[in-house]
Amino acid sequence: MIKRVLILKNNFPLVYRNYEPGQAQLKGNSLGDFQPIIDSILNKVSIGQQNEELIGDLKLTYKQVGPAFFVVSSDPNEEGILDILLPELETLFYAIFPQDYVENWQGDDVSVFQGFVAKLDQLRSAFENRIMTKSGSRRELDTLSVMELPQRLQKTARSILDAKIASFQEVIAMTESSAQQAVATIQEILNAGFLYTTKMGNKVYYSVKSFSDSPPPAAAATLSATPTPAPAPVSSPVETTIQTSTTTQQPQTSTPDTQRTLGVEVTKRNTDKGNMPFLLKQIKKGMDQVFDAIVSRKLLLIVLDPESDKNQVLLNMILDTIQCFAPERELRIVNYTADFIHPRDADIIRVNRDLLSYYSNEVILDMDKKKVSQGLTSIYLNDIIQTMTKQKHNECVSLLINRVSLIEKISQDWAKIKKLNLPSDDFVNAIRAKHTPAMLEVIERVASHVYMD
Predict the structure, then answer these.
(1) Residue 155 neighbours by CB under 8 Å, 6+ apart
(2) How far is the C-alpha of 388 from the C-alpha of 392, rounded, in Å?
(3) What is the extent of the structural domain holding 151?
(4) 447: buried, middle or exposed (CB in 10 Å: 19+, 13-18, 0-12)?
(5) Please, which contacts does 228-232 make with residues 24 or more away whose CB atoms are closer than 8 Å?
(6) Which of 50, 135, 317, 353 could hold 212 in an S-S bridge, CB 3.0 to 4.6 Å?
């Protein structure tokens, strides 16, 4: 989890965003309990240098670029900050505020930088929801393996090897090739079993090895303050190792107890105990967004207050019903939490309403207000929903078993076509003719989020 992001000039905060649940945003130029942390690292880097270190249970990643000092604090096991998030943050900030503007800014009106917070929130959300190739699933690219590749692929492979990590646009710039040539070449290298990918929003990064294989940052030996919700001196020894974690977009079935996030139950609910007609009567609009979230393996947040025996019965019925959207799959479910849980760690979370502001892109099923928000609409899925409004529950289950299986199969085929860079016109035309053009939008999302490396 990204906890805080700061952009400073001469130790003055131009942008300061605190993402820790329960922590208020500080006003003015005060950094509160975080000031000792900043003081300890400000003199460690010069312009252009970047660093990453552990301070207590916190990882600090920072870099001085021009007049601005960029700092990101996170959980120790957060990967890709140094190679992806920090460069993206730097590029985004200076795209809006040119370096000469920041250099000449004299501190007269800091509010000019406050509009950047919305951009920062979007960047942070995209990073938190990034999709990474599973560690150990690819071959590490090195000098010897580059030489084993066909000669037409070696320039691109060598460029990525030299860079260690590169975006698609950077590959084009390094190899001076067209976008079409770059797509074909990279796909051949991927097909040969090399390169790890990280997808953040619409941007893809290629790396020679998994981020989780990187050595942990050095731990700071001394520091008297720590940016935890209740500030206190660090009394326990500083951790010197990082427990790494990776995510994969492949369908998840079960998770060993040692790898589960606390409070997450991995189970397949009983669809026979669901009640689709009841749920569709309660939520008259937006159930296609819920359907889309489940079939695309995106987090669904459920709000149901207050805690009571009656509402627990209702929650169980809702969970059994939502299971119908994933008939053959186990879901990772949190019955209730008042603490932030990362979107990658669960499929469904019944969450405290106070935490909703920390989930900017996740679909929210608010049973108290009987509405759905923040989801993506789908004509194809909504047509299925409308058909089910006229059916009994067991008929709804039968329909969904058929339709979800169809979506999964076609999405897998579409993912193979995209990964192998095969001609797609015949496939697309067949979908349009045999099913409906509206289905293409759904399979694109499922293929991208579930079956693409």
Answers:
(1) 175
(2) 8
(3) 143-213
(4) buried
(5) 228/33, 228/56, 228/57, 229/20, 229/22, 229/23, 231/32, 231/33
(6) 135
End residue of a domain, out of 165, 193, 213: 213
Q: Is residue 208 domain-shared with residue 262, that is, in the same domain?
A: no
Q: How many CA atoms lie within 13 A of 199 on its CB side?
A: 14
400 CB burial (10 A radius; 0-12, 13-18, 19+): buried
Does residue 229 belong to any structural domain of this protein? no
Nearest to 168 by CA among 155, 153, 154, 182: 182
Residues 19 and 87 in one domain: yes
Are 343 and 301 in contact by the 8 Å Cβ rule? The answer is no
Domain count, the chain: 3
Give the span between the Cα atoms of 70 and 63, in whole angstroms: 5
User: Do residues 220 and 53 make contact, with C-beta atoms less than 8 angstroms apart?
Assistant: yes
One domain for residues 95 and 68: yes
Distance of CA 176 to the CA centre of its chain: 31
DSSP 8-state class, residue 194: B
Same domain, 168 and 264: no
Together in a domain, 284 and 203: no
> Does residue 108 share a domain with residue 84?
yes
Work out the end-to-end distance of the chain between its first and last CA atoms, rounded to an integer number of angstroms: 22
At 63 the three-state DSSP class reads: strand
Distance (Å, rounded) from C-alpha 262 to C-alpha 259?
9
Residue 237 within a domain = no
For residue 54, the one-letter residue type is L
What are the pLDDT tens digits along the chain (453 aa)? 888 898 888 888 888 888 877 555 555 566 767 777 777 777 676 666 678 888 778 888 888 888 888 999 888 888 888 888 898 999 999 998 999 898 888 877 788 888 888 889 888 888 888 888 877 788 888 888 888 889 999 999 999 999 899 988 899 999 998 888 888 899 899 888 899 888 887 788 999 888 766 666 666 544 433 333 333 333 222 332 223 333 333 344 344 433 445 578 898 999 999 999 999 999 999 999 999 999 999 999 999 976 655 678 889 999 999 999 999 999 999 988 888 888 888 999 999 888 888 887 899 999 999 999 999 999 999 999 999 999 999 999 999 999 999 999 999 999 888 877 778 888 899 999 888 899 999 999 999 888 875
Last residue of a domain, one of 168, 195, 213: 213
Q: Give ∠ CA 406-412-413 in degrees, rounded to 5.
A: 90
